[in-house]
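ok so I'm stuck.
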Amino acid sequence: MRKPLVKTAALLAISVPLLVASARGRAAAAVDEPSDSRWDGWWISPGAVVGATIFADDPPQTSHLTTGVELSAVRFHTQSFSDAAFQDRQVLLSPYFGGYVDMVHTADDRGTRLSAGPVVGIGFGVVDGEVVWEPRASRVGLAGRVAATSGPLSLYVRTGVFPGKSTSWAEMGVLIKFPLHLGSGNHAFWRVLE
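replied:
not stuck anymore, here's the structure
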């Protein structure tokens, strides 16, 4: 029963250094880039989720392997700063917003959940709220997620609640995305995040 938790811990142990290295690389790239709007516009990001879920009715120290897919769309707008110290870091400090849909399946016959909701973020921090539907139990609930993200890699924690028995759960894991730039204004084009 502890295997999914051990696998998730191992995955996080590998992913955290990658996230930190990616964040450092992005910060260095942002400092070297001229201030332009190449980041502005709409981005879509298909991705895959791997994590572990703990349900309120589980015995202590029991977790379930959770896998899934996600698709998000966000609008990014780089900020302009009058302070020269911040001008080179405009990408890191710029807000974005949008929405997403995902589908995750929890092992050990705990079912599949579909969710959708708004996304807001600034820099490496992301927060989203969602409506969750569990088809097998025909129930609808609410959930929220926070994530630290850099480029294609995100570490997240999500918690949610359904009405009735087994009302709550917590999920943590890694989200790997492939961001694609749709462009902005009249100059829309597809561009893979470099």
